[in-house]
Design a protein that fits this description.
The chain is an alpha+beta fold. Helices cover 35% and strands 29% of the residues. The protein is built from seven helices and ten strands. The strands form two sheets. An eight-stranded antiparallel β-sheet has the order 6-3-5-4-10-7-9-8. The chain has a two-stranded antiparallel ribbon with strand order 1-2. It is globular, with a radius of gyration of 18 Å.
Length: 243
């Protein structure tokens, strides 16, 4: 008998049509990629254990789960042993199927073995992207994770500026590999970003070039014009991927 997770993933893919996935359990349709951003800090003594486990988890997720679109692992550019994971799935159903897999259980077991430093326990954000569903390979890149909590009264303008930033980044920047974002599924007006750049110095060249573009300047103008449009201080994390 096939494992239940494999059956679930297969049913999702069989039900798909033009990028739309039907969830047989709820008869609902989700045509968007479901994204996960994760941050945590590992005890130095557990670094090797973590790297061995996470690379195995990454490989099995991408190889065994048809609904898995991306599994990126990176380490903070300034804080050794602080790691970031970005995953994408075909709908939230794909993520639910992932959690039922045996290798997801291996990660759960590791989490329960006290591998994190004080204050370094995992922080997760879930969101739906507005981009096309596509498979993203494991690759070397300079990664950026951003959290922006926006005042409701400027949200419409913010979304227009960010949509333009995304379009300019992926269409006009030769060193931009990826720019995806979405609103948190658990906190209204909180927007989560995942970006990847290539180029010299482990991709830093691409990120520095991004900050000089007209569409990024439009973002800076939006912030200046609205005199702090945030309800919380923005969070920007920089990392290099582990490929």
């Amino acid at each position: 008998m096939l494992p239940i997770a494999i059956i679930l993933i297969s049913s999702l893919l069989i039900s798909s049509s033009h990028g739309l996935i039907t969830n047989p359990a709820t008869n609902t349709v989700s045509g968007k990629p479901f994204l996960v951003n994760l941050k945590f800090s590992i005890k130095p003594s557990r670094r090797d254990d973590f790297l061995s486990l996470i690379k195995d988890n990454q490989r099995k997720t991408l190889d065994l789960e048809p609904a898995s679109l991306q599994y990126t692992v990176g380490e903070d550019v300034n804080s050794p042993n602080t790691f970031y994971i970005h995953e994408q799935f075909i709908g939230s159903e794909g993520f639910d199927a992932h959690r039922a897999m045996g290798h997801a259980g291996d990660w759960a077991t590791f989490k329960n073995s006290k591998p994190f430093i004080d204050g370094g326990e995992p922080l997760l954000d879930f969101y739906f992207g507005n981009h096309n569903i596509e498979k993203i390979p494991v690759r070397s890149a300079f990664g950026v994770h951003v959290e922006l909590c926006i005042k409701p009264e400027v949200q419409a303008e913010f979304l227009e500026v960010i949509k333009n930033n995304q379009k300019g980044s992926v269409e006009t920047e030769p060193l931009c590999l990826q720019y995806v974002y979405g609103e948190s599924t658990s906190e209204e007006n909180k927007f989560i970003f995942h970006e990847e750049y290539t180029g010299k110095d482990g991709g830093l060249e691409g990120f520095e070039a991004h900050k000089l573009t007209p569409h990024f300047r439009a973002w800076e103008d939006f912030v200046a014009k609205n005199n702090n449009p945030f309800t919380k201080a923005p969070v920007v994390d920089l990392f290099r991927t582990i490929d």
